[in-house]
């Protein structure tokens, strides 16, 4: 194992005064120091020149790789391993080549100022990420701490909260935590018009106005939570389908025949870091699915203009696959089974006789579970009420050995 040549130093608003002996020694011995302009200002005159991190971000990573083996320091805000550069570099370098000297994270400082137990608080990064991500975490009484990109982020969040029916939520911007310019500004989301600095943590105490719909992260959102043209896996079937797909953190789903995007969206909402790729050749449905993904807090849903099995080439191997369309395409089951990871889950739903025949044949070849799901909903029948059945769904599912 190579000796550590790269040191990641977490720095706070107190600059040099807040650094320990190991951090100061690493800065004095470094052949190159990389960081943001803000970091350079905090350390001015205390160490060698700070090289601005190149743009795009990936160029900075490559610059570091070119110095591999030479003493190098990367400056980060707070804890480099918490939504920081350290997480990215850890995917490129073995732990033995890095020394990480974390500072106090912005989350820890904010929680200390507010008196919020961290284990009871949602911790999110909206730094360089869509604020729509926040929508998946809203519920009455939620406490959220958010890293931000600029002063404008707070205004965007306030607009989002009002749009979601959480305009009564209290927002607090905690500026320059841990430094002489530390300050807090609080106001309700509805009508937020505060002038704040670019460097802050945003705290949210979520409070819903009357009749705001609850969007639980347990699969089975109401059908009217999605825009759709009728091509949607209905609520009860969707919940049963997601139960078989078993979303877990960081897992990848292929949603083949994505339609409104409902399956992929609920997959991503159900587990932190869960990812989904939807194949949908209809441009209108892709646009609708993108709008649904943003509205329900999963803007990272990837939608491709493709059909299976041809469109599967080059995609990262999945942990789960949902076949909601295209079942009659030749070779689709074999193509999916070949790419599915061992232990991966496959679920296929059929409503036509032709698609059902494909599932019966697949069940005969591969085994698994076969069931029929029949749902009826109460609806008016004249002045009375009766049952209106939905089309029955044949579902085949298996876990790949």
3D structure, described in words:
With 401 residues, the chain is an alpha/beta fold. Helix content is 27%, strand content 24%. It is built from 11 helices and 19 strands. Strands 13-12-11-14-15-19-16 form a 7-stranded mixed β-sheet, sandwiched between helices. Strands 3-2-4-1-5 form a 5-stranded parallel β-sheet. A 5-stranded mixed β-sheet has the order 6-7-10-8-9, sandwiched between helices. Strand 11, helix 8 and strand 12 (275-279) form a beta-alpha-beta unit. Helix 7 (235-245) packs across helix 8 (262-270). The longest helix has 14 residues, at 353-366. It is globular, with a radius of gyration of 25 Å. The two termini are 35 Å apart. The mean pLDDT is 95.
**Can you tell me the residue ranges where pLDDT is under 50 for at least 5 consecutive residues?**
none
Query: What Rg is obtained from the alpha carbons, in whole angstroms?
Result: 25 Å
Count of strand segments: 19
Report the oligomer. Answer: single chain
Number of helices: 11
Overall helicity: 25-40%
SSE order: EHEHEHEHEHEEHEEEHEHEHEEHEHEEEE
Q: Can you list the strand order of the major beta sheet?
A: 13-12-11-14-15-19-16
Mean pLDDT value: 95
Biggest sheet, in brief? 7 strands, mixed
Distance between the termini: 35 Å
Judged by helices, strands and strand pairing, the structural class is alpha/beta
Residues in β-strands, percent: 15-25%
Shape: globular
């Amino acid at each position: 194992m190579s000796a550590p040549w790269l040191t990641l130093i977490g720095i706070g608003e107190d600059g040099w005064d807040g650094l320990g002996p190991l951090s100061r020694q690493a800065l004095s011995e470094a052949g190159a120091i990389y960081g943001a302009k803000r970091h350079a200002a905090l350390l001015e005159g205390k160490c060698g020149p700070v090289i601005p991190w190149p743009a795009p971000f990936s160029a900075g990573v490559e610059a570091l790789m070119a110095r591999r083996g030479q003493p190098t320091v990367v400056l980060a805000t707070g804890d480099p391993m918490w939504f920081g550069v350290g997480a990215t570099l850890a995917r490129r370098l073995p732990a033995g080549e890095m020394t990480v000297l974390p500072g106090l994270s912005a989350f820890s400082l904010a929680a200390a100022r507010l008196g919020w137990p961290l284990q009871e608080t949602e911790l999110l990064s909206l730094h360089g990420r869509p604020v729509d991500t926040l929508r998946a975490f809203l519920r009455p009484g939620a406490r959220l701490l958010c890293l931000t990109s600029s002063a404008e982020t707070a205004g965007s969040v306030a607009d989002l909260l009002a749009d979601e029916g959480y305009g009564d939520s209290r927002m607090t911007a905690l500026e320059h935590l841990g430094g002489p310019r530390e300050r807090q500004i609080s106001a309700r989301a509805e009508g937020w018009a505060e002038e704040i600095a670019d460097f802050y943590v945003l705290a949210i105490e979520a409070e819903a106005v009357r009749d705001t719909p609850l969007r639980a992260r347990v699969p089975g959102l109401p059908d009217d939570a999605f825009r759709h043209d009728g091509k949607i896996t209905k609520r009860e079937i969707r919940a049963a389908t997601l139960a078989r797909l078993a979303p877990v953190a960081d897992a990848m789903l292929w949603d083949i025949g994505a339609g409104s995007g409902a399956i992929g969206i609920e997959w991503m909402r159900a587990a932190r870091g869960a990812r989904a790729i939807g194949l949908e050749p209809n441009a209108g449905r892709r646009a609708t699915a993108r709008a649904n993904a943003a509205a329900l807090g999963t803007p990272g849903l990837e939608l491709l203009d493709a059909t299976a099995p041809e469109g599967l080439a080059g995609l990262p191997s999945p942990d789960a696959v949902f076949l909601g369309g295209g079942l009659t395409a030749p070779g689709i089951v074999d193509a999916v089974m070949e790419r599915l990871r061992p232990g991966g889950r496959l679920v296929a739903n059929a409503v036509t006789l032709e698609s059902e025949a494909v599932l019966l044949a697949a069940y005969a070849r591969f085994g698994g579970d076969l069931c029929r799901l029949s749902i009826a909903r109460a609806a008016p029948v004249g002045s009375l009420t009766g049952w209106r059945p939905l089309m029955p769904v044949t579902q085949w599912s298996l876990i790949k050995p």
